[in-house]
Design goal:
This protein has 234 residues and is of the alpha/beta class. The chain has helices at 17-28, 61-75, 98-126, 148-167, 186-190, 202-214; strands at 8-12, 32-37, 51-55, 80-83, 130-134, 174-180, 223-226. The protein has a 7-stranded parallel beta sheet with strand order 3-2-1-4-5-6-7, sandwiched between helices. Helix 4 links the parallel strand 5 (130-134) and strand 6 (174-180). Helix 2 runs parallel beside helix 3. The relative contact order is 0.15.
Length: 234
């Protein structure tokens, strides 16, 4: 009896925090993972037969192709693309320079759009391709003046997730945005005085991602807001 081929997920920004938690969750449940990191040699690889560490920089368009090619050469397929890489510049829309705007949108919007476009043919071959966009609740509301520039980019990232969902409808590709509030990561703990143990944990997000990847094509979920506390609507 032939074995069922491993399903393969590409995860950007996977060296720590949410990305690393997603990788562990998928590895623990039989997936192969290809991790896109700025310093892949510094990322542990406890399962070299099912984990590939690749150099990826959201600001370097050429790194997209190298990462995709290495993933296909190693595993022969790509079934899921998880956009986790991101950045936050704490600037109000009145303070932000044109250069800061370009950098914020290049990482949070242009890079995942470009990477999705390049991975799309492999996701179509899968027949059950999945795209998961780690957005933020800042993609649904502007919490403070200093989060204004970041929120603008995350509103656009949320629209990108919805646009990919529409684009993949006929090919069995399902796209979902996960919109967390504060998560107990380096970035999350630096932005608030809320104790890390009270925040949403990276493992909570990882479980949501795996659930989305398990669902059949007949269950299309547009977005999942999740917060560590009760907030208006979220």
């Amino acid at each position: 009896m032939s074995q069922t081929p491993l399903r393969v997920a590409m995860i950007s920004g996977a060296s720590r925090g949410i990305g690393a938690a997603i990788a562990r969750e998928l590895l623990d449940h039989g997936w192969a993972v290809s991790l896109g990191c700025r310093s892949p040699d510094q990322v542990a690889n406890p399962q070299p037969d099912r984990q590939l560490n690749c150099a990826y920089d959201a600001l370097d368009p050429d790194s997209d192709g190298r990462w995709i090619a290495a993933t296909l050469a190693t595993f022969g397929r790509i079934d899921a693309l998880i956009h986790n890489a991101g950045m936050m510049l704490p600037r109000s829309v009145l303070e932000a320079s044109d250069e800061e705007f370009d950098q914020q949108f290049s990482v949070n919007v242009k890079a995942p759009m470009r990477l999705s476009r390049k991975v799309w043919p492999a996701l179509k071959v899968s027949g059950q391709g999945r795209v998961v966009m780690l957005v933020s609740l800042s993609g649904k509301r502007v919490k403070s003046a200093q989060s204004g520039l970041y929120a603008m980019s995350k509103f656009a990232a949320l629209a990108l997730a919805h646009a990919l969902r529409r684009a993949g409808e006929e090919d069995g590709i399902r796209s979902t945005a996960i919109c967390p509030g504060f998560v107990a990561t380096d970035m999350g703990t630096a932005l608030t005085e809320v104790p890390a143990e009270k925040m949403t944990q990276p493992g909570d997000i990882a479980l949501l991602v795996r659930t989305l990847l398990m669902l059949p094509n007949s269950a299309s979920i547009a977005e999942i807001p999740i917060n560590w506390t009760v907030e208006d609507q979220y």
